[in-house]
């Protein structure tokens, strides 16, 4: 059973009396009356991070991936709550000191404040982060319009290659290894974009499970499909070099998740505005495709206008 069937069959009806729950089909809880926006994410060792050998970096990844939910809704994060389960080995004085230092650095970088949390003894290491922001409006999923352009911020694929390096599935020189593992642990989330998104985005979410998987979620209750241009999907110069030297497939790297970039759709009339915002903020924003009628099959095309078959569309939670 996947997470969507689980939610639909067992939990969706429990939220029906709460419009703020957004039918459990978005990344946040939004109480418009009180301008309150909340997201909750859980991270397990072995699934969401390989191990805890670098607690200072793991905690940075966890915090950034959590607040990216709010950023992609056009909301500035303000508070975060952290609950952790683990044992003496996980939470030794040495590790706790590193965690505390990293949290302080993230607070200063993203102007967020620790609001509280909880600790529980367990032999399984896990973190749950609740992120809180305040806004009178958000950008929803499933508000896409036909013929919308599809955009992403930043670059895709660096984080997944960093994961492959950490898993010792690919060998790179020290300089390249450090770059890609840094992108894995410290994704370059676009906080400054939060204040601008509402001026042009019709629908939006962050890319956590993979570009294609998350694009499917963005329009999952709408009668639309999409057409993506592989050549237009942005990747870093460093990744381009690795693709060429290692003869790797671009599509297999940009669709695996952990990018935490903003994925959004916007009307064609907003193209000039989006370009101006991109230049003003110094944030890369790239048009990668279009939304189309459901009568057309969702597709990804290469430079020859040939449809590409994607074997792995991203990460899916199975129960």
In short:
32% of the residues lie in helices and 23% in strands. With 319 residues, it is α+β, with helices and mostly antiparallel strands. It has two domains: 3-134, 60s Ribosomal Protein L30, Chain: A; 149-301, Phosphoribosyl-aminoimidazole Synthetase, Chain A, domain 2 (Alpha-Beta Complex).
Listing every helix as H and every strand as E from the N terminus to the C terminus, the arrangement reads: HEEHEHEEEHHHEHEHHEHEE
How is the main sheet built?
6 strands, mixed
Q: Classify the beta-strand content into a percent band.
A: 15-25%
Which CATH architecture of the largest domain is right? Alpha-Beta Complex
Strand order of the largest sheet: 7-9-6-10-8-11
CATH-level-4 superfamily name of the largest domain:
PurM-like C-terminal domain
Average pLDDT figure: 94
Radius of gyration: 19 Å
């Amino acid at each position: 059973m996947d997470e969507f069937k689980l939610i639909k069959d067992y939990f969706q009806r429990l939220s029906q009396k709460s419009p703020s729950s957004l039918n459990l089909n978005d990344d946040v809880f939004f109480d418009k009356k009180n301008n309150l926006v909340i997201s909750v994410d859980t991270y397990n060792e072995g699934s969401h991070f390989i191990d805890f050998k670098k607690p200072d970096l793991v905690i940075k990844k966890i915090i950034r991936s959590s607040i990216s939910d709010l950023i992609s809704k056009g909301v500035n994060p303000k508070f975060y709550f952290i609950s952790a389960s683990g044992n003496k080995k996980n939470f030794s004085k040495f590790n706790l000191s590193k965690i505390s230092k990293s949290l302080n650095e993230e607070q200063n970088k993203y102007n967020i404040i620790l609001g509280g949390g909880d600790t529980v003894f367990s032999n399984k290491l896990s973190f749950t982060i609740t992120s809180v922001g305040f806004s009178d409006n958000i950008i929803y999923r499933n508000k896409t319009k036909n013929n919308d352009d599809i955009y992403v911020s930043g670059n895709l694929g660096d984080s997944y290659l960093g994961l492959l390096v950490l898993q010792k599935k690919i060998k790179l020189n020290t300089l390249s290894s450090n770059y890609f593992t840094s992108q894995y642990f410290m994704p370059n989330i676009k906080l400054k974009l939060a204040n601008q998104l509402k001026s042009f985005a019709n629908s939006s979410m962050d890319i956590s499970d993979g570009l294609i998987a998350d694009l499917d979620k963005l329009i999952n209750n709408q009668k639309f499909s999409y057409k993506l241009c592989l050549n237009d999907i942005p990747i870093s110069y460093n990744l381009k070099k690795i693709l060429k030297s290692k003869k790797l497939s671009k599509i297999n790297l940009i669709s695996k998740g952990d990018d935490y970039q903003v994925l959004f759709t916007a009307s064609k009339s907003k193209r000039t505005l989006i370009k101006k915002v991109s230049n003003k903020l110094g944030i890369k924003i790239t048009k990668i495709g279009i939304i189309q009628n459901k009568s057309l099959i969702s597709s990804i095309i290469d430079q020859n206008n040939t449809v590409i078959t994607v074997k792995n569309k991203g990460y899916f939670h199975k129960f």
